[in-house]
Design brief:
Elements: E1 2-4, H1 20-26, H2 35-42, E2 58-65, E3 73-77, H3 87-90, E4 96-102, E5 108-116, E6 123-126, E7 138-144, E8 153-158, E9 164-168, E10 172-174, E11 182-186, E12 196-203, H4 213-216, E13 227-229, E14 233-234, E15 239-240, E16 246-249, E17 259-268, H5 270-282, E18 304-320
Parallel strand pairs: 1-5, 2-18, 10-18
Antiparallel strand pairs: 2-3, 3-6, 4-5, 4-7, 5-6, 7-8, 9-11, 11-16, 12-13, 12-14, 12-17, 15-16, 17-18
């Protein structure tokens, strides 16, 4: 085993874009999460119970992206159901945080140490700023030196394979015009299952361009639709080509702003997939009765939250106004 070191740092939309909880929880880069809502909700779960039964839990949050630097890790605790969750109030400082890159046999190949930010409590950053996330490799998070000596948080993620882009049809498009954005790519093979995808659109100049008609009709706070995202979709929702590649025709409803946009396609790991499908069931996306509904799937030992990974491709496109009749 080797240890890596470096200088330390101090109205709801239809179809694909139906789940706004997912919009906020997954697609924003490296560290947006929905714990402000979710943490108050989860302590009650499906069966509400007396607050005397409340047990504080640790919460982790980190999203690794293939071929990008190691992501930051956020560490906090839950709050009782009737209290407001504010990360800065429950951030956990002073923990020992490490991420291990594992060999196929499960042994540790490299250990990356993390240090807490001098500016923001509970935010931990990799000391090695040159290390990048490797596709189809397993990473293990380990957190110790917590409030109690025997407390330990662990989680693992298998990074999805890299997506190979083959072509796009056009990057300068008229909104709802004859040409709709299409991307053709090879998704790679995630071990044991089909690849599962998320698509998202990020408005690059929302201050100078208006919302597209559908999103302009929604009740929202300023800036709420700067990034919008799909729910989970598998390979069956794409056109499969004879060479095995997939073609995605990006839906107009998935683009919230005119002007320059970054469109992205991500393939996600099991942790994000398990989390999202269980949240969908909890939120009413199921015909199961309450007694049959499973708990949210966290895939974390010693706490709750998400330690997950993804691989993706992105494209910058310009969405122009349609011609007036």
């Amino acid at each position: 085993m080797k240890t890596a070191t470096s200088s330390p740092h101090t109205k709801k939309s239809p179809g694909w874009f139906q789940n706004r909880l997912f919009v906020e929880s997954i697609v924003r880069r490296m560290g947006l999460f929905i714990f402000g809502f979710l943490l108050m909700w989860l302590v009650a779960g499906c069966d509400l119970y007396e607050q005397d039964d409340y047990v504080e839990q640790y919460v982790i949050e980190s999203f690794f992206t293939s071929d990008e630097p190691l992501a930051k890790i956020k560490l906090s605790t839950t709050v009782p159901f009737f209290e407001t969750y504010r990360f800065e109030d429950v951030a956990v400082s002073g923990a020992d945080v490490q991420v291990h890159l594992l060999d196929p046999d499960g042994s540790v190949e490299t250990t990356y140490s993390y240090s807490e930010s001098d500016l923001t409590r509970g935010h931990y950053f990799a000391d090695d700023t040159t290390a990048v996330v490797k596709p189809l490799r397993m990473y293990k998070l380990e957190i110790t030196n917590l409030a109690q000596e025997n407390e330990r948080i662990t989680a693992t993620t298998l990074v999805p394979p890299a997506i190979q882009l083959l072509e796009v049809n056009n990057t300068d498009l008229v909104y709802q015009g004859a040409d709709q954005f299409e991307a053709t790519f090879i998704p790679g093979n995630y071990p044991g299952r089909q690849s599962i995808f998320v698509a998202s659109a990020l408005a690059l100049d929302p201050d100078n361009f208006p919302l597209t008609p559908f999103w302009d009709d929604q009740d929202s706070e300023e800036g709420e639709f700067v990034r919008v995202s799909s729910g989970i979709v598998n390979e069956g929702n794409y056109d499969t080509n004879p060479d095995g590649s997939l073609t995605l025709k990006y839906p107009w409803i998935g683009i919230a702003y005119f002007g320059p946009n970054e469109l992205s396609i991500y393939t996600i790991d099991d942790n994000l997939y398990d989390y999202q499908r269980s949240v969908n069931i909890q939120g009413g996306g199921s015909t199961l009765s309450p007694g049959q509904i499973e708990n949210v799937l966290w895939n974390v030992d010693g706490g709750i939250g998400v330690f997950a990974s993804r691989s993706g491709i992105s494209f910058e496109v310009f969405i122009d106004f349609p011609d007036l009749p």
